[in-house]
Design a protein that fits this description.
Blueprint: H1 3-14, H2 18-25, H3 29-36, H4 44-54, H5 58-62, H6 73-95, H7 100-115, H8 121-150
Helix pairs in contact: 2-3, 6-7, 6-8, 7-8
Length: 151
Amino acid sequence: MTLGEKISMLRKKEGISQEKLAEVIGVSRQAVTKWENKNANPDTENLIRLAEFFGVSLDELCKNVSKKINYAPGHILAFVSLLILAAYCVIGGITKNFDGNVLVVLIILTVNHLQLGIMTNNQKLILAAYILMMVYAAFRIFSNVRDILRS
C-alpha cells in the first residue's frame, strides 16, 4: 500500500473529508488530493502531523508493509487452547460440572499463548477477564439449553 493509499484509507476510516484533513494539518485541500493521488508526498512536518492525527507511527504511515498472517507456533497453541477452552465450556454447561482450577489453568494458557510477549500485564488481565466472562456466558447458555431440553 502506498503512502497516498494509506492517507486516504486512514482519512476515510476517521470519516473526514479531504478538506477537513487539510484544515487539521494546515495545508490546502489540493495538497491532500495530490498526496492521495500519488502526485506528491507530504514533507516531514506534515508526515509527523498526519501520524499524530491518525494515531499511528511514522513507520506505519510511511513503510510499504503488507501484513501477512504468520502462523507461528504461539498462534497454533493459542488456537488449540481456545478450542479446548470452548470444549470445556460446552461440556461444563451441559453437565453442570465445572472445576474452577481447570478453568483458571485453561484461561492462563490461552492468554499466554495469545499474547506472544507483546502484551502488557494490564492487557493480559483484561484479556483474562474477558475470556472468563465469555466462559461464564457460554456456561450459562449451555446450562439453560440443557434445562430447556430436559423439561
